[in-house]
Design brief:
Mean pLDDT: 83
Distance between the termini: 38 Å
Number of helices: 4
CATH architecture: 3-Layer(aba) Sandwich
CATH topology: Glutaredoxin
Shape: globular
Helix content: 25-40%
Radius of gyration: 15 Å
Largest sheet: 4 strands, mixed
Strand content: 5-15%
Number of strands: 4
CATH superfamily: Glutaredoxin
């Protein structure tokens, strides 16, 4: 398995007749450090999701392959019809805040930028 670090959505949502997205699905496997890191960061932010171990269910592995160019790259997060392959928590929070804010905790506060983020914001505006 290769770990794609793009974090780019694998498809775009359609606006026509779209149902309200009810959950965040996180696909993972045991021993995946990237999965553990994302799970811990989402826990810290209070972001609820349904987790799927791709080694327990072939259908879950197939969903991951459909978003990861045929690979079983985890973590893969699916929100509605949009998949994120090995996303950062920032990628997910930005997408959720813009497209599905109801999936964020009611008292959600975006994390503050670290020192590098503050430096980049100061330099590049």
């Amino acid at each position: 398995m290769s770990d794609d670090t793009s974090g780019e959505p694998s498809s775009q949502p359609s606006d026509a007749g779209a149902a309200v997205v009810q959950q965040i699905d996180l696909y993972w496997r045991p021993g995946c450090g990237f999965c553990s890191m994302l799970q811990r960061r989402l826990d810290k932010l209070g972001v609820e999701r349904v987790e799927h171990n791709i080694w327990d269910d072939d259908a879950d592995a197939a969903i991951v392959r459909s978003h990861a160019d045929g690979n079983e790259t985890v973590p893969t997060v699916v929100i509605g019809d949009v998949g994120f392959v090995n996303p950062s928590v920032t990628d997910l929070v930005v997408y959720l805040a813009a497209e599905h804010p109801h999936l964020l905790p009611d008292d959600f506060e975006p994390p503050e930028a670290g020192s590098l983020g503050k430096f980049v914001a100061r330099v590049f505006g």
